[in-house]
Amino acid sequence: IETDTFGAQALELAKHGLQTRTYEINLQASRLAAKTAADYGSREQPRYVAGSIGPGSRLPSLQQVAFTELEDSYYTQALGLFDGGVDLFQVETCQDMLQAKAALRALGRVFREKGSARPVSVLVTLEKNRMLLGTEMATALDTFLPFPLFAFGVNCGTGPEGMAEAVRTLSASSPFPLAVMPNAGLPRYKNGNYGYDLEPAAFAGQLRDFVRESGAAIVGGCCGSTPRHIRALARAVGGAAPADRKKVPRRSR
User: What is the C-alpha to C-alpha distance for residues 238 and 253, in angstroms, rounded to an integer?
Assistant: First the structure.
């Protein structure tokens, strides 16, 4: 289960006059998630908590924020999540390589200060197989190879179909466990409301194919995914083992 801290960095909370409560907000959010995980977990089916760290609204590559300022913003968030007891940090919906690195540097500071590290996953968001600032999948993967990541993958985007090429690339090349968390399709305007167009059965079926054919080890839902989507997904892949990934050697610089 993820914490509800996607936008709980100090720079984002400052828009609401809450920057001085960054640590507190992340601490309490992770404690709430940890309690829920404990309530529903069991020895046969344990539950874990992922601390959600989103991209924010200012990208350092576009000089909208200084790298060190962004790192400090993430640091306070990461400290609260760590102290609240998350089992995993999920740096997700990454749109800018420098933004993701700022989050990873902030996490490294926390781990050094605490004398203990926790697993970290990085998920990037693609539009037509490129990140917002133009980075394609292979370049993103190569950039993060030096980091000891728990998992690397893709999330958000335009739904499972829009991730297929990136998933194939990572399946063949990435040394990390593969994580895939798409949106429930695309938002559509209907009867005065926006909704997502991919029904639970279709959503679960496409993710099941990523597990069986591409070796995805972690799957879930992002924007538009409801409890119905996650229940269908759990039924589709709950007892499945990821397919063996036949990695293709490649060189890069």
Answer: 39
